[in-house]
Design a protein that fits this description.
The chain is mainly α. The chain has 9 helices and no strands. The longest helix is centred in the middle third of the chain and has 37 residues.
């Protein structure tokens, strides 16, 4: 079977269905044209869910990767390509929002539990500097048990006070990846605190 080729002006004139067909045959120009054609509409949709331009750009990149990988599963019977893209975008945006909320909950739980259960002892009136030293030592011990990238992200956040965007720049990693690493790392640290509660 001869694979359809979309080159030059033909790409710009092709309908969305033809572009999807081109993508299934690994034609990068078809993906690029589809991206340019619908980028703003999809980003606007993602933005209504996330309200964060940086995250919207991350999700948009994830969508393009998903389209590249799964275009072969697209069926015209399920609707027009734009409807398919909108469905993917909405699902991705909602997934990202849920991960963000899970990260915030994990961070809140961790920050609430840690001062109360540090080394299994409650410190209601201890000097702040001593408490911070113990806190850092405790964190370092637990961070050693995390995957390196998760541990590094948490160090940059808690010890150096970097924002998510600053961590992404420092680690040369997409913002969404940084947030996922922080979320997973904090969840594991929160789990590490649970046995200490029984000692109080």
């Amino acid at each position: 079977m001869i694979k359809p080729r979309l080159n030059g002006a033909a790409v710009g004139q092709a309908c969305d269905e033809s572009l999807i067909a081109g993508i299934t045959h690994r034609q990068e120009q078809a993906l690029a044209e589809l991206f340019v054609r619908h980028r703003q509409r999809l980003k606007s949709l993602i933005g209504t869910v996330l309200h964060d331009e940086g995250e919207a750009d991350d999700v948009l990149q994830e969508i393009m990767i998903q389209i590249w990988q799964s275009a072969v599963r697209y069926s015209p019977k399920a609707g027009k390509p734009l409807s398919w893209l909108v469905t993917i975008a909405r699902r991705r945006a909602v997934d990202r929002l849920r991960r963000r909320q899970a990260y915030c909950r994990a961070k809140e739980r961790f920050e609430k539990q840690l001062p109360q259960h540090l080394n299994g002892v409650h410190y209601p009136c201890v000097d702040q500097e001593v408490t911070q030293t113990d806190l850092r030592r405790f964190l370092e011990e637990k961070l050693q048990l995390l995957p390196p990238f998760q541990g590094e992200a948490i160090r940059l956040s808690f010890f150096y006070g970097l924002s998510h965007c600053e961590i992404a720049a420092a680690m040369r990693t997409p913002l969404g990846t940084v947030k996922t690493r922080l979320e997973l790392g904090l969840q594991k640290l929160t789990q590490a605190l649970r046995p200490l509660r029984r000692k109080i």
